[in-house]
Amino acid sequence: KQQTMSLHLAEISGQVAPGAHAVVVMDGAGWHQRGPDPKLPANVTPLLLPPYAPELNPVENIWAFLRSNKLSNRVFDSDDTIVDACCGAWNWLADQPERITSIASRAYAQVRF
Questions:
Q1: Domain ranges (residues) in the chain
Q2: pTM greater than 0.90 (yes/no)
Q3: Which terminus of the chain, N or C, has less C-beta within 10 A?
C-alpha cells in the first residue's frame, strides 16, 4: 500500500506543469499512507484531513454522486460487469468537468490571487 501511494504521488508529480505545485487531499484511508519513507516529490504537498471527517474530502461527494446517479439499484452478473459499470460511470462524469467542479468545490479551498 505504502509503495503504491509513493508511486501514485510520483505520477502526480510528473503531470504537474513546470513551475506549478500540486496539493493532494488525503484522508485517513490506509492506502493514503506513505509509510516511514518520507520520499515526497518536491512539487507535491499532501493536505492531510483529520480522521473521521469524510465531509471534508471533496472526492467523497463525487463517489456519492456516482453511486446515486449511475451505480445504484442495479444487480451485477459478474465482476466484469461491475468493472464495466464503474468505468462507464467514471468516463461519463469525466466528460463533464463543470459538474465535477460543482460537486467538489469548497469555499474554504478557493485560491485567490
A1: 1-51, 57-113
A2: no
A3: C
